[in-house]
Amino acid sequence: MAHYSSLPFFAASTGAPLFDVPTVYQDADHPWHTALVTDLAGITTEELMLFKQSRSVFLHHIEDRPDRDMQLRIYYTITQLQLEIGQWRKRLLSDRTQLAPYDHPDLKDVPVDKDGLVSLSAFQPYDGGFCLQDEVFTMAPSTNQTNACYWLLQELHDPLLFDRVKIRLDPLIHQPKALFHPMHFRMQVYGKKLDWERIRQLSTPEQLEFVPDAELTRDVGKTELVWKPNGDEIHLTCEELPTEDCLSYRGSRYFHAIFDRRTGIIDHCDGAIRYYDADSYIERRRYHIKANEATKAGIRIKIFHVAEPSHASLINLVTSYFVWNQDVFDYFNRL
What we know:
The chain has 335 residues and is an alpha+beta fold. It has 10 helices and 12 strands. Helix content is 30%, strand content 24%.
């Protein structure tokens, strides 16, 4: 797979290649237009043929267009940029010696904890990002999609939670305030109260497993969830495992919370990405998430932490974090 010279621009964009690539291509005055045109011209005929065969249903609408060859090159480039951006972010987040974006001069006085998280109290909310001095930073997305945490951020901006939240800043996306214009989306997630008293009385683990419709979901293999008693605590753990063919650029979404059965208070909750290679993925699939061995495989990158969320906030956080996962949404809405 060729490296794209326009990658730095698209990787740092608050948009997504699906929307940014056509925009840059059509704007001859854009500073990255020439680099993109060079990338488009460099795609081989063989690459295009293989791509067209693999995405024939998706691409049928361009067949009658006079510029279908260029449209095919644009769609191919969108796909490859998404892949390369995901792989780049995975390398940066997985390598503990990488400092991005914490080597930015505006962050020099911001404490970073052992998990690479920073407290939101050090920032000012700014149009879906977090502003410090003149730079706006963003949260590392939970999947390879730039907008994966968009709905979760709506919950984390809650004034009742803001000062109790820590997040992992995205190593790729941050911009000066004057240039920061993120995309906005419309979506609503509703949460209903869990039967906390029933959960409180659990004496043995209560486990679930969801397998999505393969025709509707391309990159999720299955989702596992467990409520696990541990003394006076009940641990909620949920993990959305990716399919094996997307391990190079995407990890799993992993959520954990601790419920104190004595007080009824949720001690904390946090979300993470877990990256697997082929061997650790095989090891992980040997166990359900309820087993201690399941938490040892792969590399775990924490991306947010919330201290003592309310019961309602927890449901909003978990359903927003697993946005697009219909099984998780349905589960927490019927309990």
